[in-house]
């Protein structure tokens, strides 16, 4: 599935009441909704910026891994860059 601007009816980024982290909701023209948690969008942006600004890198792949040893307040599941 390739989603272009014309496929998106609405995009909302907000910190919902009672929450600390950003949620981004994308509503497609057909009514399909995707709600992304803060970390998912942060990783997407990180990957995008890496490819757009790196002088030679043309691809980045982040894979989901469960981390038992992590910093306080960090999610158990993280998207980690593959080598």
Walkthrough of the structure:
- 0% of the residues are buried.
- This protein is an alpha+beta fold.
- The chain has one domain.
- The mean pLDDT is 94.
- The chain starts with 7 loop residues before the first strand and ends with a strand.
- It has one helix and five strands.
- Helices cover 19% and strands 34% of the residues.
Helix percent reads 10-25%
> Count of helical segments?
1
Residue-averaged pLDDT: 94
Span between termini? 26 Å
Class of secondary structure makeup:
alpha+beta
Query: H/E element string?
Result: EEEHEE
- Spans where pLDDT lies below 50 across 5 or more residues: none
Q: The biggest beta sheet, please?
A: 3 strands, antiparallel
Q: Which quaternary structure do these chains form?
A: single chain
User: Strand percentage, roughly?
Assistant: 25-35%
Report the C-alpha radius of gyration, rounded: 15 Å
Number of domains: 1
Beta strands, count: 5
Strand order of the largest sheet: 1-2-3
Overall spatial form: globular
Q: Can you lay out the helices and strands and say which pair or pack?
A:
Elements: E1 8-14, E2 23-28, E3 33-37, H1 38-53, E4 62-66, E5 77-81
Antiparallel strand pairs: 1-2, 2-3, 4-5
Keywords:
single chain, 83 residues, alpha+beta, two-stranded antiparallel sheet, 1 helix
Brief sketch in words of this structure:
The chain has 83 residues and is an alpha+beta fold. Helix content is 19%, strand content 34%.
């Amino acid at each position: 599935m390739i989603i272009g601007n014309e496929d998106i009816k609405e995009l909302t980024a907000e910190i919902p009441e009672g929450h600390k982290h950003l949620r981004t909701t994308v509503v497609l023209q057909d009514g399909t909704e995707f709600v992304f948690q803060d970390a998912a969008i942060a990783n997407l942006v990180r990957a995008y910026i890496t490819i757009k600004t790196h002088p030679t890198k043309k691809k980045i792949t982040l894979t989901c891994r469960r981390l038992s040893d992590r910093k306080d307040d960090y999610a158990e599941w993280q998207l980690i860059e593959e080598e």
